[in-house]
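Let's inspect a concrete specimen:
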Amino acid sequence: MIKQILSKLPKKLPKSDSSDSARSDSGNSTTTFGNVFQCTNVGSTISSKLNVVKRVSSVVFPASMSAGVEAVDPSLSFKDVSNTQKQNLFISKLNLCCKVYDMSDPDKNCTEQDVKRQTLLDLVDFVSSGSVKFTEPAIAALCKMCSTNLFRVFPPKFRSSTSGGETEDDEPMFDPAWSHLQVVYDLLLQFINYNSLDVKLAKAHVDHGFILRLLELFDSEDPRERDCLKTVLHRIYGKFMVHRPFIRKSVSNIIYRFVFETERHNGIAELLEIFGSVISGFALPLKEEHKIFLWKALIPLHKPKSIGIYHQQLTYCIVQFIDKDQRLVGSVIKGLLKYWPVTNSQKELMFMSELEEVLEMTSMAEFQKIMVLLFRRLACCLTSSHYQVAERAHLLWNNEHILNLITQNRQVILPLVFSALVHNSQNHWNQAVLNLTQNIRKMLSQMDEDLVLACQRRIEEEDSKSNDVAERRRITWERLEEAASNVQSVSGAGDILVPVKSAAATCSVAC
């Protein structure tokens, strides 16, 4: 009896047979077993749905990620699936968002763009709810989606080659794809900030290549993107400690290329803003690597013409270094003097503003090492024909800490600047500068009247000597002119030799 029943069962089809042949045999099995196996229609329905799921899986999941991941229709909402399927739905939606559209034409692929944006918003809400578990497939899918959407080649820059990238007068240029990019940045930031994120697992995907491509985006001309990048990179620096040396080295390379090669980059201000907080967290004593960053990267940033874009952030970084180690003051001030502008008055004003902040943090011992070089330069600024430069140099004396440094070292500093003050009193064209000069001279007289009188006598002696030299030079030229006129009046070749000899003797005596 058992053998008869088994003989009536259909034989097992090989795996290579199609599903259509299986469905054709299912009818025979149904007639054989009656009500026990009456599921032909249900089986065909399930088979067709599985085929749809397979097609979705092949599109949404890359081959490297589909192993062990159940495909879920990415158009479903997280509310419509069970908790066990939410993780797979999260990955499905991430891979669906890897499709990049041309956003320059708002009428092109409008529906698909709206679907993608809504999917991105669903992903952000899901991550912010704290329900996601960042397993390796989820991390890989998220990094792949961020890389596909964010890492791109910027269009050629048509701004003037002399502008050095974005300048204060340039209108900002906004990316037409920002409606999508902003959500991608939000998702990336939430991923990095996620409390239960396994850093050891994530660093395999947020690797050096990922960070380098992220740093390249700082050259974006969209200020909104640079602002998002600033936050993302700062969080990566704080979360992935293993990447910190690489980030510092990569940012140094960007600065080197900007200073010594291109002088074109849009994100120097944002990079310096990040490093302002990074420098404040350096441990003491400072590593040699950090000092090299100051000497080789930050100080040369005073050279480019476009310093006005990032000068505020640069000054903050410099001040943070000095706050960590007072002995760096000499290197900083010598660097300022090395790159001190000669013809750019606006840049000179920025230098003096930075100089004031540096001097406010300078100790007496460090000040004495550089005061001679410094006040020789400031003496030139005091007599500048540009009234704003001269005025700013005079206003340094109103700073109490700087004035105290000057007072303690007045024997050296006053002789360096007093002649400039006298020159201003006699020759400067601007009334505001004249008033400031008179105030400083009065203040110096109250500080040390004997020293001021000594400086005044020295200047008078120098003026007297210079007048004597000028008078001797005048007399010499008169004698030379007289001798030359005698030579012209003499006729005959033999008579020419005597006056020439006397003229040469006169010249030698005068010299």
